[in-house]
Amino acid sequence: MRERLEASVFRLPVERIRDGYYSDAYFNTTRALLLERELHPQVLMQVFQKRDGARLGGIDEAIAVLRECSGVREADGSWRAGWDELVVEALYEGEEIGAREVALTISGDYTLFAHLETVYLGCMTRRTGVMSNVARTVAAAREKPIFYFPARHEHWLVQTGDGWAAHVAGAIGVSTDAQASWWGGRGIGTVPHALIAAYGGDTVRAAEAFAERYHDEMNVTVLVDFVNDSVGTAVEVARALGPRLWGVRLDTSEDLVDVALAGRRGDALAGVSPELVRVVRDALDAAGFGDVRIVASGGFDAERIKRYEREGIPVDAYGVGSSLLRGGHDFTADIVEVDGRPRAKVGRARWPNPRLQPVP
User: Which part of the chain is CATH 3.20.140.10?
Assistant: First the structure.
């Protein structure tokens, strides 16, 4: 039996979820009507998504929502918990799932959990999307490190769970402490452009200051595109930092061609192109810095990484951002039985899944 994350990890706004604050209004009105009419249908709810090759995320958070927020508000304002009256079965975080494969079932009095559908589906949809994207990107990189760098492309409130999803799916590091909080890790990063600017645009001076302060705490990786001379800057930084330098990060803007490639002909020289990676690798090797790694970032996704790996481009790790947040793995919840009888809408039915495990 695998372990699931404790409900306390998620820091849920329990009272507001219980009161339907985050729920689609029609679930709240449906529940209120059933309670007013003293109707308590015993249902089987099944939850699935429609894409093959997905990696399931958000399931422990969905279970936490059900555990902490199912129940009924009594007339005196107290909360009567409903978890012990429900039977919940679920797959585990990180499991591969197929189209229409049931990942979660909930059995019991529908009025105990009708108000939670919006919330638990949102957890599963969001985290499964991130986890699936990261898993595909890790596979494309042939197990080379993937650094999860999309924090700036989304609202800060999603960082904790998204970081967990990326971690489970195989990302080697995340960029914020919030993203690493669910497993007790820390955010990682490189010498940023902002620090280089603060040192007057002198990448070497900024890198020396950063390494002096942090080389005992992290692998020092330096951005080397500030003056659009990645070859010259990479070699200068390697000479200045010596063994304190773990890697250099190429991040040339997609509308620029690095000066190292000036005069070359070709349609694909802008940005962090294969040619740029090759000339930086050759320059570092020729200068005696074969151990310095190259991290490529800036517009990378799974397909682009596959191409670089197929062509043998000498990248050691990839920093990937917004592409890890795109795409949909939308989950749907359907009542398929009521009071022990089939009652699914046309096109749906009960789809048993022997992989489901009881949630105690």
Answer: 7-129+327-358
Q: What is the pTM (predicted TM-score) of this model?
A: 0.88
Nearest 10 degrees: Cα torsion 44, 47, 50, 56: -150
Longest Cα separation, the chain = 81
Query: What's phi and psi for 246, nearest 5 deg?
Result: -85, -45
Return the H-helix or E-strand segment holding 318: strand 317-320
Distance CA 16, CA 12 (A): 9
Phi, psi of 45 (to 5 degrees): -105, 130
Cβ–Cβ under 8 Å, residues 317 and 295: yes
**CA terminus-to-terminus distance, the chain:** 11
CATH architecture of 7-129+327-358: Alpha-Beta Barrel (3.20)
> What pLDDT sits at residue 328?
76
How far is residue 96 from each of residues 70, 163, 340, measured CA to CA in Å?
A: 28, 18, 30
Other C-beta atoms closer than 10 Å to the C-beta of 290 total 9
**The pLDDT value given to residue 98:** 96
Q: 127: which 2 tokens?
A: 């985290």
Domain with CATH 3.20.20.70 in the chain: 142-325
CA 72 to centroid of chain Cα atoms? 33
- Measure the CA–CA gap between 319 and 165, rounded to whole angstroms: 16
Other CB atoms within 10 A of residue 317 CB: 22
Q: Which architecture, in CATH terms, is 142-325?
A: Alpha-Beta Barrel (3.20)
Strand, helix or coil for residue 148: strand
Cα–Cα distance measured from residue 224 to residue 203, given in angstroms and rounded to the nearest whole number: 7
Confidence of residue 1 (pLDDT cuts 50, 70, 90): low
